[in-house]
Amino acid sequence: AAKASGKRTWRRFQPQQRIRVVERHALQARLDHAISKEQFGLRYQPVVDIAAGRVVGFEALARWPELGPDPVPPGQFIPLAEETGHISTLGAWVLRRSTADIARLQRRTPHLDPPPYLSVNVSTRQWRDRNFLDEVCAALDATGLAAGTLQLELTESVLMQRTDQIDAQIQALKDRGVRIAVDDFGTGFSSLRYLRDFPIDVLKIDKSFIDGIPHDPQQVALVEGIVHLAETLDLQVIAEGIEEQPQRDLLADIGCRYGQGFLFARPMTVEQGEAVLRERNGHGRTDR
Ligand code: C2E
Ligand code: MG
Ligand code: MG
Ligand code: MG
Fold it and tell me: Which residues form the EAL domain (predicted)?
């Protein structure tokens, strides 16, 4: 009887499901094609020193298609590319293109000391990829970007699915001077032990925590807790998704040094990024 009713349920939902499957396949096929033809764009969102207002770095964010009226959000196409395994190809392109863009930006702004850094999102699947380390090193060598100005972002799921191979890759990257950031911190289930044992440099507090401040006392306490935790573990903190001035003020009070968000700047082209750098960090040696 269970089987029969299961069948009936299936039949009832089938037409709708088929449409979804067809759409999904069509999107996946378009995405595969775009990946093979490198039809993507990158935008760069400034990371700012909250109190000083200066830009300290840029996070590379993938866009598809680069131009046009119907962009597919990365929250949609990145998981699709992860399923097909093509994220490795896309991720390698993101690395090559973003290191080239930011290396050029640094050469065009030699008066900035330290130079603005590049932060790149790396999916769990990429971290498991044996070629990943070589790809990072190749991108650094090809573009001349100093390893110390590259930051790679991982999510808590990588901390929880560590393998010897992932650990070895991360150690090799650290030895080269690359920094490691935990993205969307607070949304996963990583334990304090992982944070202590893993060679992390930066925590990025997820936007969902920032949304609740300064009005929700519980969220304020959580953000404060994360900032103090980071201090204890000697990690930098970046608050994600700052949209309002009161959020900025509270974060500055709490001692959260860095932030990203529409309040400061949206993701932009590298040319716009250069203009923002010149405007906010000055032309001369004012940033010293
Ligand atoms: P993420 O790494 O946490 O990036 C931050 C996201 O928040 C970006 O969305 C950014 O545009 C958005 N954001 C920044 N400030 C604000 C704000 O003040 N308000 C609001 N509402 N949003 C803000 P985006 O570009 O749509 O990217 C979404 C996610 O897709 C990223 O989240 C990241 O997980 C993933 N992603 C993007 N590019 C790449 C990539 O090249 N590789 C990989 N593996 N993942 C990527
Ligand atoms: Mg990120
Ligand atoms: Mg993030
Ligand atoms: Mg996030």
Answer: 24-281
The closest residue, in CA terms, to atom 43 on ligand 1 is 121
Residue 238 β-bridge partners: 204, 258
The amino acid at 87: I
Distance CA 150, CA 179 (A): 6
Give Cα separations from 190 to 78, 152, 198, 206, 225 (angstroms): 22, 18, 11, 14, 15
- Determine the distance from the C-alpha atom of residue 14 to the mean position of all C-alpha atoms in its chain, rounded to a whole number: 37
In angstroms, rounded to a whole number, what is the distance separating the alpha carbons of residues 231 and 224? 11
**Which of 26, 126, 43, 39 has the alpha carbon at shortest distance from 85?**
126
Single pTM value for the model: 0.93
Distance (angstroms) between ligand 3 centre and the Cα of 90 equals 18
Distance between Cα 59 and ligand 3 center (Å): 9
C-alpha span between 41 and 38 (Å, rounded): 9
Q: What is the pLDDT of residues 30-56, one digit of tens each?
A: 999 999 999 999 999 999 999 999 999
ipTM, two decimals, is 0.98
C-beta of 74 in contact with ligand 1 (< 6 A)? yes
At 45, the amino acid letter reads: Q
Q: How far apart are the first and last CA of the chain?
A: 76
Q: Which amino acid is at 224?
A: E
Q: From ligand 4's centre to the CA of 240, what distance in Å?
A: 7
Number of the ligand 1 atom closest to the C-alpha atom of 242: 18
Residues within 5 Å of ion ligand 3 by Cβ?
183-184
State the residue for tokens 């790809």: 135
